[in-house]
Design goal:
- This protein is mainly beta.
- The protein has 5 domains: 255 residues, Alpha/Beta hydrolase fold, catalytic domain (Rossmann fold), CATH 3.40.50.1820; 77 residues, Immunoglobulins (Immunoglobulin-like, Sandwich), CATH 2.60.40; 76 residues, Immunoglobulin-like (Sandwich); 76 residues, Immunoglobulin-like; 179 residues, Jelly Rolls.
- The protein contains 10 helices and 47 strands.
- The strands form 10 sheets. The chain has a 10-stranded mixed β-sheet with strand order 1-2-4-3-5-6-7-10-9-8, with helices on both faces. Strands 14, 16, 17, 19, 20 and 21 form a 6-stranded mixed β-sheet that branches. Strands 39, 40, 41, 43, 45 and 46 form a 6-stranded antiparallel β-sheet that branches.
- Helix 6 crosses helix 8 and helix 8 crosses helix 9.
- It is flat.
- The N terminus is likely disordered.
């Protein structure tokens, strides 16, 4: 359907749609003007930002920005800074406005079926606003192939709907903290979708495709979502990407087959002084990006990288404004041309003639042969290219204002002799060895000798693997089809008995020993430590063997071609060292309790807390012990942590067992200070054991025996920290559901203690 026909439903807007109010800025710095749209589907105010220095009639892109609940165009423009980017890049920005007359919270009604289809409700109003601006050519020149829509929260959910209902208007869409198409069809379902996600995204992908109707096409999508968004939970970001994968799969006649779990690229990033993030992309079979997903670590419900001058922004995140603009400019409507190259790059003996073909044939091809990236200023292709030396060819095709991706082919012209490889190469072996000679070029003749003399063209011609049964010097060279001759190479194959040496040797030792096995030639050692005879199915030696108790090592060597040596045996008697116990008290200045997302650590009270707050937030405590008091070089055998209940109040008994996490050796957040970030800081190991009881009385003790895996994180050179928490993070009962334990500040007999047994 032509754009003219699509505009027929909104002809009235030419009379009613452009009624300007007082501009918000002077033309020299860009103008922000309010208008009112009236159409058959309804009426809404909207703002248009015209960038500084824009010349009326100049054709530029248009980006539609849909605000979130309780926001308005001015607030949204301030927060996203899209107008400032428009000044730099020269594009028009349109801000449709939802009013309290249509939603009490000024949210776009993305959850109402009347506002989820083409031709009615808010989608028709927003499309009508776009068409009004496009048709007002006296003020703006809009490139119809570069019209985009982006939104935040409810506006993001509506941008998804616009992509599904008007794919013929919007080239691609941007979604910040939104939801999939028809994630809900009622206000009640909307609340559920925000926290739990919508229906199956494959099902909703089909629904979005159905909504496209005859205008169906692949709609590239860029999605931003914070991993700590508890307004619109992160599952919704995943569902948006998956929904559009299915929609685009159907719209591409099943040629686009992306898998959510197998992105084309996955990149981790870090904003300087801000948040870390992961960016994933999914490409079609031609290498064109279709979906882009930014997951911002620890960000809540906000516009990533936005300005604090607007609401619902997180200045610490990567700029969603810049990323969406870049994505949009790379995804206009229309099909970019493609290039075919024949023959493909590769290795050729002598010159090669290369032909370039564009689709459509009307496209102009530009190329370079010096490795630089071609532009429209590069040489225009006019006929076959002949390469007589190694060349990297790069080419682009340009048609109707669209440019193909750069095609790169490297042609290696062979003017040197072949490379001959002996397998295995010369070395020491424990018996006969079969040697194969091969060339990196086909149709190569190889000549060789085995008596140490230099081979010539009259020497033996290689035709099958050579079996060597005694020490031999093999010399060889090759001649390729172009009569290029390689240099003579030499390999020495030494045949001798296989011998494995153990260090230290068998004997009686006080304390564990680290036994190193050495083979007198390249190969593999197999061993057992239980006295049984080793085979090739036994353990393969890869590093020193720790012998902690009396045992007999048996082993044999096998060379790289399969010859095996005799089984050898070494018996070790180990007299274990005595075990010592040290008891350490928690450090008062470093222990305390913490909430997950707000507040400051509490570290100066006589008690610690763990459990669930009245706000249903999990609460944890941090313990810290000076484990540098354990002698250096000691082996930790076991350990326990003991806590004592401070009082009998508050805990309701519904959070399960008490458990510990142990910090990395540098402490939580790589230091020993009590900090709010310790709550979610990376641990060495989590849930390293459960305390033997949940104490019910004041001063009652409870003890956690540390798991063997946790012992490796006890820091003999500094402090060791533990994170105390219940098995369940919250009881969700809106009550104070916590248990108090004595802290290091209590200073009495009930201070938390770490007991360590070591040798």
């Amino acid at each position: 359907m032509s754009r003219l026909h699509r505009y027929a439903a909104v002809l009235v807007l030419l009379m009613l749609g452009l009624a300007p109010f007082t501009p918000h800025a002077h033309a020299s710095s860009g103008t922000f003007q309010q208008y009112t749209y009236n159409g058959s589907a309804g009426s809404r105010p909207y703002y248009v930002y015209t960038p500084a220095n824009y010349q009326a009639g100049t054709t530029v892109p248009l980006i539609v920005m849909l605000h979130g609940c309780t926001q308005n165009p001015t607030d949204f423009a301030n927060g996203t800074q899209m107008n400032a980017l428009a000044d730099q890049k020269q594009f028009i920005v349109v801000y449709p406005q939802q009013t309290s007359s249509y939603n009490s919270s000024e949210c776009w009604n993305w959850f109402q079926t009347a506002d989820q289809a083409r031709g009615s409700g808010e989608p028709a109003i927003i499309a009508g606003i776009v068409q009004t601006v496009e048709q007002t050519t006296s003020q703006w020149g809009i490139d119809p192939n570069r019209v985009y829509v982006a939104g935040m929260s409810a506006g993001a959910a509506m941008s998804v709907i616009m992509g599904a209902t008007y794919p013929d208007i919007f080239a691609s869409i941007g979604v910040e903290s939104g939801l999939e198409y028809q994630a809900a069809t009622s206000l009640t379902a909307a609340s559920t979708a925000q926290t739990q996600g919508g229906p199956n995204p494959t099902q909703q992908g089909q629904a979005a495709y159905n909504a496209m109707g005859s205008a169906a096409r692949v709609v590239p999508t860029i999605v931003f979502h914070g991993t700590s968004d508890y307004t619109v939970y992160p599952v919704n970001g995943d569902q948006i990407v998956q929904q559009w994968m299915q929609t685009d799969h159907l719209a591409s006649n099943n040629t686009y087959n992306a898998s959510f779990n197998s992105p084309s690229t996955s990149t981790n990033g870090q904003v300087s002084g801000g948040r870390s993030y992961t960016t994933q992309t999914w490409n079609d079979t031609n290498g064109n990006e279709v979906q882009e997903y930014w997951k911002i670590n620890s960000m809540g419900h906000a516009w990533s990288g936005g300005s604090s001058s607007g609401s619902y922004t997180d200045p610490q995140g990567p700029s969603a404004t810049q990323a969406m603009y870049t994505f949009f400019m790379n995804h206009p409507q229309g099909q970019a041309p493609t290039i075919s190259v024949s023959p493909a790059g590769g290795t050729y003996n002598g010159s090669v003639q290369v032909t370039l073909t564009a689709n459509p044939t009307s496209a102009t091809i530009y190329y370079t042969t010096d490795g630089s990236t071609p532009t429209t200023s590069s040489t225009a292709y006019s006929g076959p290219l002949t390469f007589t030396q190694t060349t990297t060819l790069k080419a682009i095709a340009v048609a109707s204002g669209r440019t193909s991706t750069v095609v790169t082919q490297t042609y290696t012209i062979n003017a040197t002799g072949p490379t001959i490889t002996a397998s295995p190469s010369g070395s020491t072996f424990g018996g006969p060895v079969s040697v194969s000679l091969s060339s990196n070029e086909s149709n190569t003749t190889i000549h060789y000798t085995t008596d140490g003399s230099t081979p010539t063209a009259s020497s033996a011609t290689y035709s099958a693997p050579l079996r060597l049964t005694q020490t031999t010097t093999l010399k060889y060279f090759g001649v390729d089809a172009s009569n290029n001759t390689s240099t003579v190479q030499s390999q020495v194959y030494t045949i001798t008995a296989i011998q494995v040496t153990a260090s230290p040797p068998a004997g009686s030792y006080s304390g564990p020993q680290s036994v190193v096995l050495s083979l007198n030639m390249p190969g593999t050692i197999y061993y057992t430590a239980d006295g049984s005879t080793p085979t090739t199915g036994s353990t393969q030696y890869s590093g020193p063997i720790k012998v902690s108790s009396s045992e007999t090592l048996k082993f044999f060597g096998k060379d790289q071609v399969g010859n095996s040596g005799p089984v050898q045996s070494q018996a070790y008697t180990i007299n274990p060292p005595p075990t010592h116990t040290i008891t350490l008290k928690s450090i008062a200045t470093e222990d305390g309790y913490i909430y997950p997302n707000d507040g400051i650590p509490v570290g100066s009270l006589a008690y610690l807390q763990a459990g669930s707050t009245p706000l249903n937030q999990a609460e944890i405590s941090i313990l810290s012990f000076d484990t540098s008091q354990i002698p250096a070089g000691s082996t930790i055998v076991s350990g326990t942590v003991t806590l004592y209940r401070y009082d009998p109040y508050y805990y309701l008994g519904d959070l399960g067992s008490i458990s510990l996490d142990i910090s990395p050796t540098g402490g939580f957040n790589n230091n020993n200070a009590l900090e709010q970030v310790d709550y979610n800081a990376t641990s060495g190991q989590t849930n390293i054991g459960y305390f033997n009881v949940v104490p019910t009385q004041t001063n009652q003790a409870t003890t956690d025996t540390l798991s063997q895996g946790a012992l490796a994180y006890i820091n003999l050179n500094g402090h060791t920290q533990f994170r105390v928490h219940f098995q369940l993070p919250t009881s969700n009962n809106n009550q104070s559901d916590v248990m108090d334990f004595y802290s290091g500040d209590s200073g009495g007999a009930y201070v938390p203690v770490l007991s360590v047994q070591y040798q």
